[in-house]
Every structure is written in C-alpha cells, then in structure tokens.
Amino acid sequence: MVLPVHRVRPDATEKYIAAAEEYYTGLREDTDLHVKLTGNWQVTVGEQDTFYHILEYENYTGYDRTSAMLQGSKVRD
C-alpha cells in the first residue's frame, strides 16, 4: 500500500482537486496498471490543505510494473 500526501497552497486547492481527480481516475481505470485506488481524503480539521490518497498494488510485482509504466509515460513529459 502507498499513501501519497500532498500539501497544497490554499489558493491552488480547486486546481489541485481537478488535477488529482483526473490523475487518480486514470490510474483507477487503466487495467494495465495493477493498482487499486482505495480512497482520497481532504483534511478539513487540523492540517488543512492536505490531501491523502491510498493506493493498493497487486504485491510487489504490481507495484514495480506500475512504477515502471508511470515513469516511462509520455504524460509526464
């Protein structure tokens, strides 16, 4: 399991939410990526403007394969 944490400037929250929704929806829907999006959360009490995303991979092979595919993706260019 991987737990990405992003701290976002208050003035960029809406833009971040739109970008994160597109990115994580793409991860979830791509059957070549062996990853399951378990959940997304925005902190509203305490350390605000912080976002958590829980990703589950099909064992280490799924993690390695997904990481390699994302690193070689043209979308990152």
UniProtKB/TrEMBL annotation:
SUPFAM superfamilies: Dimeric alpha+beta barrel (SSF54909)
GO cellular component: mitochondrion
Superkingdom, taxonomy of origin: Eukaryota
InterPro entries: Dimeric_a/b-barrel, NipSnap_domain
Protein name per the record: ABM domain-containing protein
Source organism per UniProt: Gloeophyllum trabeum (strain ATCC 11539 / FP-39264 / Madison 617)
